[in-house]
Write a structure and sequence with these properties.
Largest sheet of chain A: 2 strands, parallel
Shape of chain A: globular
Helix content of chain A: 10-25%
Radius of gyration of chain B: 20 Å
Oligomer: heterodimer
Structural class of chain B: alpha/beta
Strand order of the largest sheet of chain B: 8-9-11-12-13-14-15-16
Amino acid sequence: MTEHRYVESLPDLISPDEYADHPDGALVRLRITVTGNGVEVLGDAMRPEHVEALLAAAGLRNIQQMLCG
Amino acid sequence: MSEWTPAVLSTAEAGRHRCDLCPHRCRLGPGQVGYCQVRRGAEAGLETLTFASSVEHLDAVERKPLYHWHPGRRVLTLAAPGCSFRCDYCINFRISQYGRPGGQDWDATPVDPAAAARKVADTGAAGIALSYTEPSLAIELTLALAATGTPVVWKSNGYLTPEALALAAPAVAALNIDLKAVHDDDHRRLTGGEVAPVLAAIAGFRAAGAWVEVSTPLIPGFNDHPDQVAAIAAAVAAIDPAMPWHLLRFSPAYRMTDRDPTSPTALEDAAAIGRAAGLHYVYVERALGPAGRETRCPGCAAVVVRRDIWSAEPPLLHAGRCPECRTRIAGVWGNDDRASVR
């Protein structure tokens, strides 16, 4: 089962300038980094379910995410 | 999960207790949990799960969003579980919908109000925010935090009874309240609650002296028709045209993934409708760039506050007034300017 942990901030990978170019919200962007502890995958999407599905498909069970508000 | 602790706002009724916190007014026997899933009946009154938080974030007050209350300052954000609404688009559904389908168990620890207040003082934050879930369900925690003398702010759905409003208003320094629709059928369909208490809360908190800003998520196919936008803007303007109005870009999420995100054009059009309705301050956080976030003087259109996403430059104000034409800019701009709200 995936565990979601809520954090203060994460970097944006999508710029507001890109909103108009993706009216259906299909844009997903990933940044994969090899760190000293393994592999870190940062995802950003206009539809949160898309990036969550990608991270789940990659077998990632611990997801950090930001909240609205 | 956190512990059940005594709750306020109940009325005894023939072996049950009526919860008087939100307009659902659940009637609860011992052990029965209310619609919100975080208040339950007990032998002597009610109990709540919300004297607790599972987050402790220091973040920008602009995130709530509050643009006219100590801009550029941080707040210590706490979140107790639960919500009195069940909005179909809620990005925070895993914690806001605690106890309902889609919600999840989460670890929360009891809040020590004195320790939270010390953290605010130590970090130079402007206050404590209750956000991410519905803060009015944590009214007992709110009262305890306010008793420390630390300003408390809410990001709220505004769904309170008159009794809850009267109890909370002296304890809450500033709020951002969502107004998602003004037609009751629309509002019930999206949230599960009627809109009249929300409008009453916006007006009531404002009349009580709290600083109030309003947010409307602009949802394609739900509330983005120009007539609907105009009706929402008119409702805000009728209460106070100097209340900032934030137009939020909708992201497809939870049970509302069948439509597209809000387009920048729709947000731009809605902002124009808001200004035409007489609202002095209309904001769009990201989609319209820096111009969507800046505060302009309603008297001479000079820019008086510039913002980035989730930060602000020091306001270009003199004692709460425009430096060009001396028009008062409504808000709480600093410790010396609190009187400028009233």
